[in-house]
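Q: What structure does this chain adopt?
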Amino acid sequence: MTTPTPGQPLGMSDFFALEAGEYLDRLDAVLQGDAPAAADEFVRLSRALRGSALMASQQAIARAATGVEALARSVREGRRPWDAGTKQIAIRAVDDLKIFVRRATSWTEADTAKAEALAAQLEQLAGRPSAQVRAAEAMGLDAGARAFVAREGAAIASALDRAGQTLRTNPLAHDPLQHVLKALQPLRGLAALNDLPPLPDLLEGIERAIGELSRSSPVAATLVGELFQTAASAIAHTAREVAERGRPDPEGAEFRKFAGLLMRFMESEPDVVPIDALFHSDAGPHIVQRGTPPARPATLGRLELVSHGEHLRQAADSLERAPSPTQRELRAHTLAGTFRALGGAGGGPVAERVAEFAQAAREAVTRGIAVNQAAVFAGELRRAGDILSRSGSGDEVALAAELAAVTAAVRTLVSGGAPAAAPAPPVVPIESLAPAPAPVPARAPTARPSAPRISSPGPAADETVPESADLVGSWAAYQRLAAPGFGAASLDALLQGPSADTGRPRVSADPGAATEAPRRGSEPAVVDIGTLLYRGARARQRAQDLREAAKRVSGDDLRAIIDEVCDLVVLAIEPA
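A:
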């Protein structure tokens, strides 16, 4: 081992060398004797060596010590027999660790590779734990924490079962409830409880049911017996799952059943009825003297209202973040006590509106709105929380009006769910959407001698078909034009003039052709093609039209307009 120089203060590496050397010497002594008899000491010393290496930031040595600890645990749990081969492997591993400790001050990458190889070899010989145990250890629950949850869960389940049996026979017996509350305390103080959903919500629901039972009538207490026994089954099942798998199933059947019974219990509280409704319907006398109404609670201070606002916002976030429907239902029902406390507030415009909001919100919880429409309900809770958070410095009248609007929205959810959407338009037959057929103007038959006649396939005589705008009329016009026959295609024939049948004007490329004398008869004059172009004032007018059109288009259409305007600039200079 490394021996510190006399007269110099001890550093962290010196402390580690001394402490690790002591642990390794004691491990040598254990391995030379009967290791199975001292298996607990084998595990304890290897774990202490690993912790010492971690404290000294010797990660590679700690990794090798982890392999020795895994081998020790396998021997203690009977997964690895303690034979000559196992003993030789353990002694050689301790010797390697002694070498690692001596080289701690001059550590190299090669030493890190050797330590990692030693740890992998020892873990392979020890055998890996099950997947459930690895998952539990990965989320921070080691064997001790799982054993604690299993033990305390069994104690809670036993107390709940006894309380449920007692309340079935005597609903007024509240002594077993105190035993349940006492049994809940150790598990409620576990730091990793929030990592085991829905166990925290289940415990909160049990505590809420006990609180409600102390204020409710025996009629509601008769349901608590079944509620508590269902909770006992859920807790016992959770304890087994945590011990075996490291976490419970958040959608287990026991959790869902408990959530349903909790809803029934919250809804079973009877309404307050006037005392005169309890008398017989006779002449009386019934009420001889009026009693004194209870005093109104003190007005909520601004600081209390701000605190309630923060609580409502946290409750809204918790309701939205619930990972499963069962947890959302359990968290929603735990809000009933909060709304009851707010409903008893009196005095002041804001406090009165708070009481109205609490009553509407509690009714929404009991009717399942907080579970079925969690996002909408959480949004209203957050709005109410924001309003109360501003009550410390805002105008009370304005805040009361805002809170009244939130209350109205919650009551809308209770009465008919979410605000109704606009009514859908009535369904109409698809035939009524078809456009009406346009009237086809009748066209008189032409008086041309070459009008065709279309023969029907039947025995009827031939008849003249009018050249209308439909397909039949187009075919009739085609037959009339094709009756004389078609000659060879010729451009000269096209430029010479129209045929006698078409009557269309001739277009000449010769500018002087427009000065020719008019044709005989009804034949139209030759039109100069230059007159069809934009020039002078017409080009400028066309440019103005394109300018207006460019304001309404973009992309390719706009580029086409720009090209045409550029051509019109040249034409606008020329005279018309």
